[in-house]
Amino acid sequence: MQNAETKARQVTGKPLSHSSFIIRQSAFVFIALLALAVRLPQLGERPMHTDESINAYLAGELLAGEKYHYDPKDRHGPALMELTLPIVRVEGAKEFSDLTERRLRLVPVLVGSATVLLFGAAIEIFGFIPSLVAALLFAFAPLPVYYHRYFIHETMFVAATFGLILSGWRALQKKSAMIAAFSGGCAALMLACKETAALHFVAIGLAIAISWRLRRAGKVPTFKIWLAGGLGFLITAILLFTWAGQNWPEPADWFRAISNFTARAGGEGHEKPVWYYLVLLAGGWSGVAILSLAALGCVRATRNPAAAAKSVIAFYALLILVIYSAIPYKTPWLALNFWLPISLLAGFAIEWSWLTTVKPAIRALIIIFCAGLGLLITHDTWQRVFLHWAEKKNPYAYAHTSEDLLRLPVRLKELARQNKTPNPRIAVVAADPWPLPWYLRKFSTVGFWQPDQETGDADFFITTTEVSGKLAERLKDFRPEFFEIRPNVFMQLWSPPKMDIRHE
Amino acid sequence: MNKSFLNISVIAGLLIAITTFADDPVPLKTELPKPLFVGTPVPIENVPNLETPRKGKRPDFLVPAGTINLAKGKKVTASDSEPVIGTLDLITDGDKGGDEGSWVELGPGRQWVQIDLERNANIYAVMVWHYHAQARVYFDVVVQVSNDPKFEKGVTTIFDDTNGSGKDRAYLETYQGKLMDAKGVQGRYIRLFSNGNTTSKLNHYIEVEVFGKSAA
Lengths: 504, 216
Prior knowledge:
CATH class of the domain at 68-214 in chain B: Mainly Beta
CATH architecture of the domain at 68-214 in chain B: Sandwich
CATH topology of the domain at 68-214 in chain B: Jelly Rolls
Order of helices and strands of chain B: HEEEEEEEEE
Largest interface: A-B, 49 and 37 residues
Distance between the termini of chain A: 72 Å
Oligomer: heterodimer
Number of helices of chain B: 1
Distance between the termini of chain B: 105 Å
Low-confidence stretches of chain B: none
Strand content of chain A: 5-15%
């Protein structure tokens, strides 16, 4: 066993020739390009999830010239918007109605594919085989492919987390203030993506402390490193949260953010059992195999006193799994946070298995296992990402917008044409109208009212199944049509009473 | 002469210009309310045997002439005699609005309400509104008719979507209420069960209508 670890160190520690370096990095560029190719097809065809549509709406407001203000409730940090605006502008979008699913989702797709490149930078720390295996798992496994095609903050958050781990480790090893400042910037980027960054800072800090404690050794950062890291964090955070100094958030918002997210952690209807993430990760044909590999990699990494960086990853994985599992609020996209350490741990396991033996038969078995795992992953990715992307049976499609809702804007246009109202006035009356603001973005006269508010005049009304009081009286002669907005949640489109309704 | 003509021309020109501009229609700028932001929606799932909601109004349900709502204003009793919110008389007061003040909230778990029609009747349909201010499904809904106020004998079940054993499908609450075909069964008492809903363990009733005719 020790022999295998020594060999591993020899493999990872050996200085590379320039040509070997180029060849290895080219492999990661190739995998990143393949990752991009896998993420691009049918990018605009899955209906917009509510969370995606809210982010899209915010992007639309910023495109329209509204200034960014940090809102501690439900909007997370500004980083996603700061990256989205230049990309959609390059794509030609000038206002909300110019935005499309494809244009917006291209942002996480590019970030997710670029994250694969970071594994090339991880060779020096974790070795070539683990980095290669992790890059492949990150590029093609169903969970990252699915959520890299989601216009939410997680993809960018994981990229920044990886940036922090890589640059932080390097700053400690090389005692470089410049790299420390960069890692501070990555930490600020994490916070500007999601406030949950604080949980990861705790997990990474504890993982380093535990690793050092077990190894009874470690490179304690010098004051210079701390200072550079702190300054990097502060400057980047100020730049990001103030939109380059344009809008300063209210200091009180930070406290509101803490209370909001503490309340949310309690569940707010998203409570799930502690084993939720493990069950989610173990799902599909490939889940158990990948988790088993990660568990093996975790055991090897924590037991090997020579592999400090690997043991940090192992403890980080365990800690964030424990932290996220202990919090009642759970959604499947948060599992993307585990995929980074899981893919690295699986890489450690493959490397260990490969180096433990030199017998050709056993190595052949490892190759066959990896090929088989590749086939299982291909099946799962095909099923979950491309075949059943919004269906209830897909555990990643959580409270997902139903494909039935795609009929609504088409039907509205059809009815408006029949009603000879080219610019129909649409009143949406619903406590939670999302993602309708996205699907009605091409109509110029749309208002959104809460159920207890008096609505304005309108040609068409859209309501939830709740219709009561004055509105019920007003709509008593209107004709309703049902549209499924999410599984078991419906909206009604109410057409004028005198209209001759035809289905074209 | 020329000067005053010039002045008149200038004034006339200005007036025409002012009138022209004043009459030019301009688009009415209205500020429509924006959507309020919400968090990630909570999925409604794990409801076995849920019926697909009807796309449109309910088709006509035919009953014998002279059929009326026999439950209006009748006495209601319940397994939970002290409702959390509201009073039991709201169930038969004729108000089917979803607003607060229109519904009664019973405690968690399996609960029942019972309506005394005061005399034996032929019942053709029962309509139930549990709650419709939010999309939700009530679990294990059972509706029974009997002449025995304790429902120990002569019980006829007209609707049962109990998970696993019920003959009917669970349904999503809407403002249209749920119509249950009673097929003319005779009885004086109607008992309705439920066992919490997709949002909470509590039970609610806005209105119950019992359509029938007094038995001869």
